[in-house]
Amino acid sequence: MASKLVVSTFLSLDGVMQGPGGPGEDDSGGFAFGGWLTPHVDEGFEQIMGQVFDRADSLLLGRRSYDILASYWPDVPDEEGGQKINSMTKYVATRSPIDASWRNTEILVGDAAETVADLKQRTDGEILVQGSSDLLRTLQQADLVDEYRLLIFPVVLGDGKRLFAPGTAAAGLRMTETRSTPAGVVYVAYERAGKPVLASLG
Fold it and tell me: Can you give the pTM of this predicted structure?
């Protein structure tokens, strides 16, 4: 028994993942570009995201991302996309207990490197991490990520939280899928493939 931990995230071309959905979503550090994703959302984007969520068995979130999603999705009707995300199990990694009213939510209290490692061992299927940049740092440093599914948007921001930060465990990756949308978003999936392979051109 072991789950696969998949990171799905939205990125600017220069690797920023902060505040894609709108102003005020995450203004930490004086980030001034909240909402950079929205002008590029089209049917192709929606199809990709639908497939990403259809493949997931559960959702893993940090506290901030949980609060954002839980304020919206419980009221979304099943026929408008709410059925999948509302019915699936949601895990929230947090250092202190919280009250969670969104149905099928389990709180993982403690150090995320330990609680998520345990979660992977005691569950089956695919655990999807959506956004959750602060949680992601911990997962990357603990070498717990098995796959990345990235949507790269045609915008350069120059500032903000990035997908890969110093301290991320080194890893080799194997590309498993790629496509693009009419709005210019590039989707690419990479599976972990052991340690980086090093060689010389000379």
Answer: 0.93
